[in-house]
């Protein structure tokens, strides 16, 4: 999940929904989360490309099904 800021409260609702609904209720296996904060503000162009989030997300995806 991306967000303009890095505040804990920004991600709190999404993380809660993920843990309760997708993991506990539906039964998906939790492989982790990538919370990408600091990606810009709502009034200008995002700048996720200036962060490490894309590299981390790529590696996270590659490692999802490694044994």
Task: Summarize this structure as a short list of keywords or feature phrases.
67 residues; mainly alpha; 2 helices; flat
Fold and architecture overview:
Helices cover 43% and strands 0% of the residues. The chain is an all-alpha fold. The longest helix has 18 residues, at 8-25. It is flat and about 40 Å long. The two termini are 25 Å apart.
Topology overview:
Blueprint: H1 8-25, H2 53-63
* Number of β-strand runs: 0
| Mean pLDDT over the residues | 90
Radius of gyration: 14 Å
What is the overall shape?
A: flat
Count every helix, treating DSSP H or I runs of 4 or more residues as helices.
2
Order of helices and strands: HH
**What kind of sheet is the major sheet?**
none
Brief overview, please?
The chain has 67 residues and is mostly helical. The chain has helices at residues 8-25, 53-63.
């Amino acid at each position: 999940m991306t967000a303009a800021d890095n505040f804990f409260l920004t991600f709190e609702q999404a993380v809660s929904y993920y843990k309760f609904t997708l993991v506990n209720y539906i039964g998906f296996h939790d492989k982790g989360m990538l919370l990408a904060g600091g990606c810009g503000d709502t009034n200008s162009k995002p700048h996720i490309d200036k962060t490490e989030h894309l590299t981390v997300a790529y590696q996270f995806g590659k490692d999802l099904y490694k044994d």
